[in-house]
Amino acid sequence: MVDYDKMLNSRIKKVKPSGIRRFFDIANEMEHVISLSIGEPDFKTPWHVREEGIKTLEKGKTWYSPNRGFAKLRNEISSYYRRRFSLEYDPDSEVLVTVGGSEAIDVCIRCLVEEGDEVLIPQPCFVCYEPITEMAGATPVIIETKAENDFRLTPEELESHITPKSKLLILPFPNNPTGAVMRRSDLEAIARIVEKYDLFVLSDEIYGELTYGGERHVSFAEIDGMKERTAVINGFSKSYAMTGWRLGYALGPAPVIDQMTKLHQFAIMSAPTTAQYAAIEALKNGDSDIESMKKQYDMRRRLVVGSFQKMGLSCFEPNGAFYCFPCIKSTGLTSEQFCLGLINSKHVAVVPGNAFGECGEGYIRVSYSYSLDHLGEALNRIEEYLSEIKNR
Amino acid sequence: MDELLKLLSGNSKFTSDELSMILDEPKDYLEKQIREYENTGVIKGYQAIVDWDKVPDAKVTAMIEIKVTPQKDTGFNSVAAQIMSFDEVESLYLMAGSYDFAVYVTGKTMQEVAMFVSRRLSTLESVLSTSTHFLLKKYKESGIDFYEDDSEEDKRSLVL
Ligand SMILES: Cc1ncc(COP(=O)(O)O)c(C=O)c1O
């Protein structure tokens, strides 16, 4: 008999399974659930982008790409950063094309930290940074962001968690699950602390194209002195509705990208070829697609946020991504109790806030990446649920 | 296109509260706007979009191309008035191209529709010829997907 427990890596075994996953499994078991829990665009990839993928398949362009990604794609990424953020990245040495933003995050963290290092992670946040840090042998240091600060990271919060072991700061904005964004002045304040303590920053800007209310997203690398201390993570999943193509990228200083490329080369070889051809088309001719999807998200966002406020749940205005994060503390229930009750009695699935870190307790994540009709129906049911709780 | 009309033509059941949030406009302004659209006939009415195939005594629909001789004084209008007066005619359009009118006719059976065409439409004085096409399957209508193999359920997976 094989003793698998002995066989398996103890560091991996110690990593906790994803909290969202557990809740998804409950939702999956049930029939006729209407969900507000999915974290990917409901839109299909724009047709001209899909068509480009199809064309290259028809021509039989099915080989590996270079390890760093096709030069043409890296050039397009570089010119996108120039026109959109006024940032210069050398396509040959400062760009790495990866399997989604996910792989870029993984190789970036693994290249930077090791045992004895601390990684500063503001929560609530996307679930991957903490386990990847643990798997790299480093120690996650959680910084709890607060609703009263609109879930932004403040320089005071950051500074109070810094120790001599601090090495890497994760900046997950626009934020999943809160929808929080960091404006230029917020980033400048963080930059001063980063400089003072000689930190490196992984700025996950995968939702960078999805911000609302006039001000566009500012990249952390745009802040004075920060480009040389930042790996920017981005990708095609959210902005171009290309989740299934699995394509993302990292931009950063050449010495960091070099090491990341080495890891990527041995673990992955190269990102999917067809997806890269499609992505070139997306970057070249996809600006108007982003605008029209963003307009739809914004209408949905206003409906969802406005409806929660009408229901009497306090909900700060999320200005990025496609999530809102209402507070359910007034119901007297925990996040999990609230979500279980909602799914059992009204068959509506949302994700408990604590799946994104303990400080998400008392909140729920509601994705508005759904049609207005779908959202309207789900919101009505949530309203019924709330009045039933109140009258219990 | 006007965002309000676009929303209502997709779903006329949005409440003015919902519309106000979605469009970020005051509720009474939108209500006034809708009333004005109704009064001026921009909004002609509100209908349910029915999937008749799901209703027990289903209907069949045909699209009939008609070529006519336009009348001296009234052109196509007097012919159109005759055609649209039949209850069987659901929609009627004047077309540019190789025929003049597109007529949508519904009936209980193909037989019934065919009889209507040969007895009532073909016999009209100015009608030169007709060509009847029966609808076999509805994939999309009024912007709504009827192709259920693919559409109704959310194909997204729960991943992370
Ligand atoms: C904040 C954040 N970063 C990264 C990712 C990973 O996206 P992908 O690997 O599809 O690029 C996600 C996906 O949900 C996310 O929400």
Features:
heterodimer, A: 392 residues, alpha/beta, Aspartate Aminotransferase, domain 1, Aspartate Aminotransferase, domain 2, 2 domains, 7-stranded mixed sheet, 14 helices, B: 2 domains, 4-stranded antiparallel sheet, 5 helices
Write the layout of secondary structure elements.
The complex is a heterodimer of chains A (392) and B (160).
Chain A: H1 4-7, H2 10-14, H3 19-29, E1 34-35, H4 47-58, H5 71-85, E2 95-98, H6 100-112, E3 118-123, H7 129-135, E4 139-144, H8 155-160, E5 166-171, H9 184-196, E6 200-204, E7 230-235, E8 248-251, H10 254-267, H11 273-285, H12 287-311, E9 323-324, H13 335-346, E10 348-349, E11 351-352, E12 364-367, H14 372-390
Parallel strand pairs in A: 1-10, 3-4, 3-5, 5-6, 6-7
Antiparallel strand pairs in A: 2-8, 7-8, 9-12, 11-12
Chain B: H1 3-10, H2 16-23, H3 27-39, E1 60-68, H4 77-84, E2 89-94, E3 101-107, H5 110-121, E4 127-134, E5 140-141, E6 144-145
Antiparallel strand pairs in B: 1-3, 1-4, 2-3, 5-6
Helix pairs in contact in B: 2-3
Pyridoxal-5'-phosphate binds at residues 39, 100-102, 126, 172, 176, 204, 206, 235, 237, 243, 248 of chain A.
